[in-house]
Write a structure and sequence with these properties.
The chain is of the alpha+beta class and 179 residues long. The protein has one helix at residues 2-33; strands spanning 37-42, 46-48, 54-61, 67-70, 84-88, 91-92, 110-113, 118-124, 135-141, 144-145, 148-149, 165-166, 172-177. It starts with a helix and ends with a strand.
Amino acid sequence: MAGRSSWLLWLLLAGTACVSQREQQKETEAQAVGVALECALSVPQRVRVGEPVPLQFRLTNRTAQPVFVLTWRTPLEGLRGNDFRITRDGEELRYQGPMAKRGDPAAEDYVKLAPGESAEAEVDVSLGYALDTPGRYRIAFRGAVMDATLVQAEVPRPLAQHRAVPLQCPEVETERVAP
């Protein structure tokens, strides 16, 4: 029995090391790109059922030089995929909006952010998620910036050369109330 416990402990530690290694790899990739981006979301505290749910997204360059950021899979391009995790009273909602399938990006798919500069966009999340029931909704951005670079000459890059930059956007909460 002791041999089995040791084996299970080793398996648990190995799994924890793999998860930690993946998180460290994401952080290392972002540092290798040399890009520091800050993300913020905001939404009204209360919205009536049947009205739009406007979500503000702000992406700020915290790097000491200009950054070129691919807008795909962020609200900077609109609502084009399952880019948010939305829960109502603890239950996750399915995405029901448009999905974009793409080839390589064009230069106009990137936004240039000077040091300290922000890009902002507003999307109505009720266009992609069923927010038609009264309750408390938590909204979190799922993703990362798919590609970012400090070198303008690298824009646009083919999909195979993209360097993702993880984003940590604090989740927001809103309450849907009866009309």
